[in-house]
Amino acid sequence: MMEASIALLFGLLIGSFLNVCIYRWPLDQSVVKPRSHCIACRKTIAWYDNIPLVSFVVLGGQCRYCHARIRFRYPVVELATGLLFFYWVFTAGLTLLAVKMCILTGILVALVFCDLEERILPDEFTLGGTLVALVLAAFVPVPDIYARALLLWTGVNPSERVRWVLESALGAGLPAFFLWGAGWLYEKFRHREGLGLGDVKLIAMVGTFLGMGNALATLIVGSLSGSILGYAYIRFTHKDPSTYELPFGTFLGLAALLAAFTSDKIAGW
Question: C-alpha angle with apex 140: 255 to 110, nearest 5 degrees?
Fold first, then answer.
């Protein structure tokens, strides 16, 4: 419990940093400089006003200087990241598996809100996350029976660690290719873009972390939920379905979080 509690506190701090990334990376801004500041009055935020969760409550959800409202997204991201870190360390212990899952779910939380707010899935999260997952695959393999079957079918017989990395790469490549193909067909028949490359990169990252089966499950669940809830939202708000841009990455991110929690493959690690 002590280790999980420390992970919770660390997760809150990481969540605070993710909030900076969520705001700045879609704008192609540095996350290092300048220091955290109010986006309304530009005043630099003091360290005591930048304590995860606590400062939001103490300040009543508004800037100390100009009293502009602070987005509720800030405490939500901090709390969600902290709870996710707590969960993985509590269930898997202080292990590389827990570290891997903390990284994945932290990235997914950030991507959910990036796409919801800006309709952008930054490469720093998607491609960067894919690279991290490939490195971690050499130490924490993804026991994906589909990728393993493909390797056996091709007759490739590498060393164990190389096989783990190849299985992780296959988990990224094939689901991403299916999604890209669906987007290409939609554009050919409807003559307008229906899918961004950011969504393809997101699925690739999920496959690298969780394996091909979970990436495909994420794609199916995300597509169905996005179609149903997106259509309901368009009808309820009377938006034009031909121009409304659905935050598909948000639905994929939430579906990937669900896959991370429900996958029996992860429980078997």
Answer: 35
- Per-residue pLDDT reduced to its tens digit, 4-54: 999 999 999 999 999 999 999 998 898 888 888 888 888 888 888 899 999
**Composition of the chain by helix, strand, coil, percent to 5:** 70, 0, 25
C-alpha–C-alpha distance, residues 60 and 70, integer Å: 9
- Distances from the Cα of 102 to the Cαs of 51, 62, 130, 221, in angstroms? 21, 30, 14, 22
Its pTM stands at: 0.88
CA distance 208 to 240: 36
Are 121 and 206 in contact, with CB atoms under 8 Å apart?
Answer: no
| Residue given tokens 């959910």 in the structure block | 112
Please give the DSSP secondary-structure letter assigned to residue 138. Answer: T
In 3D, which of 168, 133, 54 has the Cα closest to residue 158? Answer: 168
